[in-house]
């Protein structure tokens, strides 16, 4: 579940290994580019963490972030 704190929408995903995590990140990158809304994220081995906010809205959580979060969840379920 996404958690909103410190003007960020946050969530961490865990995968079976690095290749699966990297594949997930590649899929998210394609969607984020199409939306022109790029996440702050990090990856360590099988874990991918997100902190979403909208820079041009003063680094606050906006509808863009919630829409991207929904798309990320869809990709994670595939």
First-to-last CA distance: 17 Å
Radius of gyration: 12 Å
How many E-type strands?
4
Helix content: 40-55%
pLDDT under 50 segments (min length 5)?
Answer: none
User: Outline, from the CA principal axes?
Assistant: globular
The assigned structural class equals alpha+beta
Overall residue-averaged pLDDT value: 97
Main sheet: strands, sense, barrel: 4 strands, antiparallel
Beta content:
25-35%
Strand order of the largest sheet: 1-2-4-3
Quaternary state of this entry equals single chain
> So how many helices?
2
Element-level helix/strand string: EEHEEH
Description:
With 78 residues, the protein is an alpha+beta fold. Helix content is 42%, strand content 27%. A 4-stranded antiparallel sheet has the order 1-2-4-3, covered by helices on one side. Helix 1 (18-35) packs antiparallel against helix 2 (63-77). The two termini are 17 Å apart. The mean pLDDT is 97.
Précis, in short:
With 78 residues, the chain is of the alpha+beta class. 42% of the residues lie in helices and 27% in strands. Helix 1 runs antiparallel to helix 2.
């Amino acid at each position: 579940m996404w958690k909103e704190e410190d003007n960020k929408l946050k969530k961490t995903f865990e995968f079976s290994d690095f290749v699966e995590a990297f594949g997930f990140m590649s899929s998210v990158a394609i969607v984020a580019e199409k939306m022109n809304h790029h996440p702050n994220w990090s990856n360590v081995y099988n874990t991918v963490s997100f902190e979403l906010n909208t820079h041009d809205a003063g680094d606050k959580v906006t509808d863009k972030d919630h829409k991207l979060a929904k798309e990320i969840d869809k990709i994670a379920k595939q």
